[in-house]
Design goal:
With 1367 residues, this protein is of the alpha+beta class. The chain contains 54 helices and 20 strands. Strands 3, 4, 5, 6, 7, 8 and 9 form a seven-stranded antiparallel β-sheet that branches. It has a five-stranded mixed β-sheet with strand order 12-11-10-15-16, with helices on both faces. A two-stranded antiparallel sheet has the order 1-2.
């Protein structure tokens, strides 16, 4: 066994055992540490933490006390002992605490001899080497801090040194027991409010010097301590244990509470106080009040026992000292005595060492002021728990009471330790939190999480089911973002869900900060990323979870045509599912899709359905009969929800069909009273555009047509005013031309830019939208649609189209299938309304099918009954032409007339390649070319008219009148309208061709704007305006469809049906706030055809039909991915700002071309020559290179192929450029409004050529194919001649020809014949049935039986006029 160690150092405070010089240093350091005024510390927390962390490991207090300290042998229980410090009011910072039982202590004379230690305790101690001394003071330095074992090989003997109790070890080893360290470490005994009140009371008392100034100073006996406590220092128990002087007495000032729970203390101190208060002694004792407690202030000297000497001379071992201090039953060795001045020698009071700690509020001992400031940092060393540190401070404040400087030093050490502990605690908490998150929280297991993910997945499942068989907006995400945000917020804030820690960890990795300074939508997009990443991790943990959420990505990828191998590889990340799972779920969705859609359609009273042909693959020629197994042709169908019109007041009223240019159009209900506006009054016209609300609107329709006619005139003026602003907003395009009057052009520029005309131009720009919104309040609502899938039956023939029509009647509830496979009329079928939209070919085939049914040969079998049912069911159907295809036919008419002799030279000058006379495959590019030419032609003619417009002399620069500028603008528009009308009959053929082209294109542009704004009135006006042109060009199918449309809307059906069609004429796909306009029904189906074309190719019709049902769901899935998986989402939802008109190089070139042609100069003898138009191209000087591309950096390969391409252009003739080159024909046009989806153009390029030719009759003329030749730099260039009717006013000629046909009488008589035929057939069939029932007529003899009844039937019908009937 190793030898027991000795106590190497005295347990003393720094002020008691350090030299004056060293004390001065410590005083300075303590002064730096303590700031009385601000309670701040200057030493860094990190240094303290480093010093603590660098200290060698010491024995824990818990183990030391358990193994060395004896349990006290007393009657009091442990709880009473532990609470001695806080039982008495004077020992606590607050009053009112309940008193505990008092512990008995002996005072007075010693009645017991000191115990003999015994021979066993008197062990021989090896001589200790002298401690190192300071070179300055020659005094012993403090011993080392660590308890170490050293091996000394001196004298050839291995020797182990004993334990050395280092300085300040008392606070680290003994104090924890007195502060109930074990209990505090386990319990939260104080709350934050209690701690705050305690700290405040200590601060207040210290600043008030604990009431010292309230005491009147009295005389002090010479040689004794002053009675001014501000000049004294309060002694702790460790101070008393180190004070030992057998020669010179140690003077003290002792304060004993008058209300001490130690009754003997209070009594003895009262007696002593009375003696010392005697004036004879002159001690000047008095009663003190410190923090509401009264004390007896006494003069005393310290009488130490023999243990003082043992401690001083290092003769007391650590184990023995701990036993003496902690063992309260040993009253002989752990006590000290105080002798009081002026009292007999035996008038002494005996106290235990532990009394200084247990009763600090009852016993307060003051000594001479220390030359150094106390440091209490070691008191809190190795303490980490905040509540324990606060408890130590709370209790030790009682031991510094009365000593302001000591209290401040204690407070400074306390706050410094709190800062260190808080930092370390935070680090520990963070480390523990990370460990807890990784080990316990970062998991997706558990019933609560499973229920959450199941609830989210069911939401997507229902959304998928709804996307197949419900009306919806296919431009919305599958699940609204607002609902996903609710789930995301639940993950963020619902702690019971158990995903908050995972959310926080992922958010930190994504760099999401709560105080993000960037725009809010960036933070939201990041949070959505984190949310989806969390869902992906959940699926990685369990692939069977969130299947329908993952199906969103899978179906979107399927709709984009991503191949299966790529799809299966992406499944690894969890945000999508495998192709096998995708196919299984799609099969489940489509199991009852047809029945659900039929049920949904049958529940609607009115349904609007559009259909069109669709195909996949490429039909191969000269292979196996001209067909390919990869080519599939079917019919795509789309249903739109109808906004009903239920007012039937005017159903019996109709307009008269005139079949001419004066055809009246009934106004919609609620239409403004434009017939009251005098179109010749400038002020009234301005008032309409500036303040449309000033025009009253009524519900009663106008069946005369004047109201719509007034609207048409105002719309024409609005269009010219809009063109005026566009043309004159930019600076003069060609100043000093010698043709135009620059002063007038400058005036027009000032007018259009004037603040006075701003309301006018704003009103004209939105005039058509504003008028439509008045009579159709629902025009801004998004149209609800439902994809009806692909039908395996094409719609190429009349019978096929008829089958599609009857199928739609069946799905809409008009027809009901019986058990035997036949059909009957559904209940209430007359109240149902079905509207069919398609291209001209499809609608014509449906009409032919209806005619075939009505004119079929008379039969008397069951087929006749079925035919009658079908014909009756078809009476609820209204077949209307698709407006998008009608616009295509209008553009085709323009190109038929003007392409070869007028538009093609401009196309070649612009170097646009993919445009030809057959606009079916290049609709978007053809619109752009026609629009550019029309715009610059309008600009040149407006410049010309402005140069001769005399009314501009009335222009006032600084207009004080409100209407001057607006009046001039309206006068200019009215004058230009008349100017352009006169040009159509000009003898100058070039100017006449320009006027005819501009007028025709304007009608086409206005028609497109009409269905873009939902203006059904403008759509009908547009159809009627092109009716004579189609008739003159031989486009008879569209000519017939326009007439049939007028007959259905204006004559055959009730006004409510006309109004219902007008309200639902166009489709709004996007919210109105986005700034995007409406589209036609057939155009929407073309967009869906483009979506279907992106699907993975299939070889079987069954698969193709199934894909058709998924088009809508895939569109919503793609929308979900593109919208929700994007950082800058808000930018896409913000409407684009409209840019002011500008001149781009393409427009500048066209304007120069027109000026070189001399469009703005008049010559009555000028004939139109296509050769001159082509040859003028060589005179152009405008360069098409854009400024923003001049400085663009290109690669070396880009430079090389561009140089080679330029060389080829110089070598080859211009006639071969169209065949051998492929250029980009799309210029940047800020003002182009004929918008078509890019996806649709790629599809139409393969098949719309056929549509354009089959929708209307062929318009090609043999003369247009003839070519001429002109010389260009010695080279012969071929060009096509102009159309022979290009210089004819087809509108005027067409109306004359139509009027000569007497269409009104012809078409009415045809209808009457059909009605008579149906009536006769019905009577004959009924007669034959009666004959069969009577057994008179046998099967096969019906014709002979019918002949005698012909005259009878004719005479029986009162409305029969006796015309011959053909059988």
């Amino acid at each position: 066994m190793s030898k027991e160690g000795e106590i190497n150092a005295v347990l003393s405070s720094p002020s008691a055992d350090e030299s004056p010089k060293r004390g001065a240093k410590e005083s300075k350091s303590a002064a730096d540490v303590t700031n009385v005024g601000n309670n701040t510390t200057t030493q860094s927390v990190e240094n303290e933490s480093e010093r603590q962390s660098s200290s060698p490991t010491v024995l824990s207090p818990k183990r030391l006390f358990q193994t060395t300290a004896k349990k006290p042998n007393r009657d009091d229980d442990e709880d009473t002992l532990q609470s001695k410090r806080s039982d008495h009011p004077s020992n606590t910072p607050f009053e009112g605490k309940q008193k505990k039982k008092q512990t008995k202590h002996r005072t007075g004379y010693k009645g017991q001899q000191r115990r003999d230690r015994g021979q066993s305790q008197k062990r021989k101690i090896e001589p200790k080497s002298k401690a190192p001394t300071s070179p300055e003071t020659n005094e012993s330095l403090p011993p080392p801090v660590a308890l170490t074992y050293n091996h000394d090989t001196e004298e050839g003997e291995l020797r182990t040194k004993g334990y050395a109790v280092p300085n300040k070890k008392f606070e680290q080893r003994i104090r924890p027991v007195t502060f109930r360290g074990h209990e505090v470490a386990r319990e939260e005994i104080y709350d934050s409010d209690d701690i705050g009140r305690h700290d405040q009371s200590v601060f207040d008392a210290a600043h008030n010097i604990f009431g010292h100034r309230d005491v009147e100073l009295k005389s002090v006996k010479e040689g004794f301590l002053t009675n001014n406590l501000e000049n004294l220092s309060r002694l702790h128990v460790e101070d008393l244990l180190t004070k030992y002087d057998s020669i010179k007495p140690i003077h003290l000032r002792v304060l004993i509470s008058k209300e001490s729970e130690k009754k003997s203390w209070a009594d003895d101190s009262q007696l002593i106080f009375m003696e010392q208060e005697d004036e004879v002694l002159g001690l000047g004792v008095q009663q003190r009040k410190i923090m509401k407690v009264y004390y007896y202030e006494l003069y005393a000297t310290l009488m130490p026992n023999h243990n003082f000497k043992s401690l001083k001379e290092n003769q007391l071992q650590q184990e023995e000292f701990l036993r003496l201090f902690l063992d309260e039953s040993d009253e002989a060795n752990n006590t000290f005595e105080l002798r009081f001045e002026g009292m007999p020698d035996d008038a002494r009071m005996e106290f235990k060492w532990s009394d200084m700690v247990n009763y600090p509020g009852d016993l307060m001992i003051f000594g001479a002021r220390s030359t150094t400031l106390r440091s209490y940092q070691s008191l809190f060393r190795d303490k980490a728990k905040l509540t324990y540190i606060q408890h130590i401070y709370r209790q030790f404040c009682l031991e510094t009471r009365g000593d302001a400087l000591a209290t401040f030093a204690l407070t400074a050490a306390y706050h410094r330790k709190i800062a260190i502990a808080t930092t370390e605690t935070t680090k520990t908490i963070e480390a523990d939190a990370v460990t807890d998150i990784i080990n316990n929280k970062m998991t997706f297991l558990g019933p609560v999480k499973s229920a959450f993910f199941e609830r989210l997945d069911n939401l997507f499942k229902k959304a998928f089911e709804g996307s197949i068989a419900q009306f919806q907006n296919y431009n919305d995400p599958l699940v609204p973002e607002d609902i996903l945000i609710e789930f995301m917020d639940e993950v963020k804030s619902n702690k019971s869900l158990g995903l908050t820690h995972a959310w926080q960890a992922l958010s930190n990795m994504r760099a999401i900060r709560s105080n993000e300074t960037r725009s809010e939508h960036i933070v939201h997009a990041k949070e959505m990323q984190v949310f989806f990443q969390l869902l992906s991790l959940a699926r990685q943990a369990d692939p069977q979870r969130l299947i329908h959420w993952a199906l969103v990505n899978a179906l979107a990828s399927y709709g984009w045509g991503i191949r299966n191998k790529v799809q299966n590889s992406l499944c690894y990340w969890g945000n999508t599912c495998s192709t096998w799972t995708r196919d299984e779920k799609m099969q489940q969705l489509l199991e009852s899709a047809f029945n659900k859609q039929t049920e949904q359609l049958s529940s609607c009273t009115a349904v609007l359905i559009s259909f069109d042909n669709v195909q996949t693959g490429q039909q191969l020629q000269k292979q196996r009969g001209g067909s390919s197994s990869h080519y599939l042709k079917a019919t795509h169908q789309l249903a739109n929800k109808v906004v009903p019109f239920t007012i039937t007041t005017w159903d019996d009223m109709h307009v008269e069909l005139t079949y001419d240019d004066q055809q009246p159009i009934p106004s919609p209900s609620g239409f403004p009273l434009f017939e009251d506006v005098n179109i010749n009054s400038i002020s009234e016209v301005i008032d309409v555009f500036v303040n449309l609300d000033s025009v009253a609107s009524v519900q009663t329709p106008d069946f005369v047509g004047t109201r719509v006619a007034g609207y048409d005139n105002l719309r024409a003026i609005a269009h010219i005013l809009n063109e005026t602003k566009r043309c004159f907003w930019v600076d003069n395009v060609q100043p000093d031309s010698g043709i135009f009057k620059d002063v007038n052009i400058k005036i027009m520029q000032k007018i259009v830019r004037s603040k006075r005309t701003k309301p006018l131009f704003e009103g004209t720009k939105g005039f058509q939208d504003a008028v439509t919104a008045i009579w159709n309040p629902t025009v801004g609502e998004v149209t609800q649609s439902m994809m009806l899938g692909v039908s395996g039956l094409a719609e190429e023939t009349a019978n096929q189209c008829g089958a599609h029509e009857l199928n739609k009647l069946f799905r809409s509830g008009v027809l009901v299938e019986k058990a035997d496979g036949t059909y009957e009329l559904g209940e209430g079928y007359k109240k149902r309304r079905l509207y069919l939209f398609g291209d001209c070919k499809s609608i014509e085939n449906i009409a032919k099918f209806s005619r075939d049914l009505s004119s079929r040969k008379l039969s008397y079998d069951q087929a006749a009954d079925q035919t009658a049912v079908f014909m009756e069911a078809m009476t609820v159907v209204m077949e209307l032409p698709g407006d998008w295809h009608a616009g295509l036919a209008m553009l085709k008419s323009i190109y038929t007339l003007f392409y070869d002799g007028f538009l093609k030279p401009f196309q070649e000058a612009l170097q646009w390649k993919r445009i030809n006379i057959d606009v079916g495959g290049c609709y978007f590019q053809a619109c752009r070319l026609a629009g550019y030419v029309a715009d610059e032609l309008m600009r040149s003619l407006m410049y010309e008219f402005a140069s001769t417009f005399d009314a501009l002399d009335e222009f006032v620069e600084d207009d004080e009148g409100i209407d001057n500028h607006a009046v001039l603008a309206c006068k200019f528009a009215a004058g230009f309208k008349e100017f352009l009308h006169k040009m159509k009959s000009s003898n100058d053929e070039l100017r006449r061709a320009c006027a005819l082209y501009l007028t025709m294109y304007t009608r086409f542009r206005t028609f497109v704007d009409s269905y873009r704004t939902g203006d059904a009135v403008g759509i009908l006006l547009g159809y009627n305006s092109f009716l004579p042109i189609w008739h003159m060009l031989g486009q008879n199918k569209y000519f017939e469809r326009v007439l049939a449309q007028n007959e259905q809307l204006l004559r055959d059906y009730e006004y409510a049906r006309y109004m219902e069609v007008s309200i639902n004429r166009s489709v709004r796909v996007h919210n109105k706030d986005t700034g995007k306009r409406m589209i036609a029904h057939d155009e929407m189906l073309e967009l869906r055809n483009a979506d279907l074309a992106e699907f993975q190719s299939t070889q079987k019709m069954e698969s193709y039909v199934r894909q058709g049902y998924l088009v809508g769901a895939a569109s919503r899935c793609k929308k979900s991915v593109t919208d929700l998986y994007r950082i800058n989402r808000s930018a896409s939802s913000t409407p684009k700002r409209s840019v002011e008109p500008s001149m781009i190089p393409e427009r500048q070139l066209l304007f120069e071309y027109l000026m070189k042609l001399g469009v703005s100069t008049h010559d009555d003898n000028r004939k139109y020559n296509s050769k001159d138009v082509y040859q003028t191209r060589a005179k152009l000087t405008t360069v098409l290179t854009r400024e923003d591309t001049k400085g663009r950096t290109t690669s070396s390969s880009d430079h090389s192929y561009n140089r080679i391409f330029s060389s080829i252009q110089q070598i080859l003739s211009t006639e071969s450029e169209g065949a051998n080159s492929s250029g980009n024909d799309r210029g940047d046009d800020e003002e182009d409004e004929i918008d078509e989806d890019e996806r649709m153009r790629s599809v139409r390029g393969n098949r719309d050529g056929n549509d354009a030719n089959t929708n209307g009759d062929s318009t090609d003329d043999p003369e247009t194919a003839e070519e001429e030749v002109y010389e260009n730099n010695g080279r012969s260039i071929k060009f096509r001649r102009m159309h022979k009717k290009m210089l004819h006013d087809l509108e005027s000629e067409g109306w004359k020809k139509i009027k000569s046909l007497d269409l009104k009488e012809l078409r009415e008589s045809r209808v009457q014949r059909e009605v008579r035929q149906q009536k006769v057939n019905k009577e004959i069939v009924n007669h034959i049935k009666e004959q069969r029932m009577l057994g008179i007529c046998d099967v096969g003899q019906e014709v002979n039986a019918v002949q005698p009844w012909k005259s009878f039937v004719q005479q029986a019908r009162s409305d029969y006029n006796g015309d011959a009937i053909e059988y």
